[in-house]
Amino acid sequence: MIANTKCQHCGNEFETDGMNRTEFCPHCGKESSIVPQVAVPAPAYTAGTFSTASTLQQIRQQTCYKTLRGLIDLVQILFFVAAGLAVLGVGAGFFAGSDAPAAVKFQIVIVGAASAFILIVLGIAWKQAALLLVDIADCQIRLAGKTR
Ligand SMILES: [Zn+2]
Questions:
Q1: How far is the CA of 91 from the centre of ligand 1 (A)?
Q2: Which of 69, 101, 110, 141 is the most buried (most CB within 10 A)?
Q3: What is residue 4's three-state secondary structure?
Q4: Cα–Cα separations (whole angstroms), residue 14 to 22, 29, 34, 90, 134
Q5: Residue 147 pLDDT > 90, yes or no?
Q6: Residue 50: per-residue pLDDT
């Protein structure tokens, strides 16, 4: 009878005729005792199991870079504040220069709105890029801790 068995050393599955009690694994070459594999139905994963979002949340909670993550948030807030100031600048320029020609006012609005938009996009992109790097660093530390 051909059955699948799992190598005790490398975890890879290979086929065995089930005649011997041990077999050499074709993957790692080590001798592994044959454990008959019973077909187990795939476990029904709940939404939380192995979910990337929950793993990420866990990593971020157990971060080694709490200060850095706080700083990333702060910089994003600064970006948004700058965007707000750009909008305010448009308003101020608009009302202060009430005798300015319409073309100039239009330019102020366009430049202000564009810079506010760019600042918000930069703020979001900054946070994602910065968090990405910190997440990678945290994951590396977690993995290093597991293999030790
Ligand atoms: Zn193996």
A1: 70
A2: 69
A3: strand
A4: 12, 12, 10, 69, 39
A5: no
A6: 62
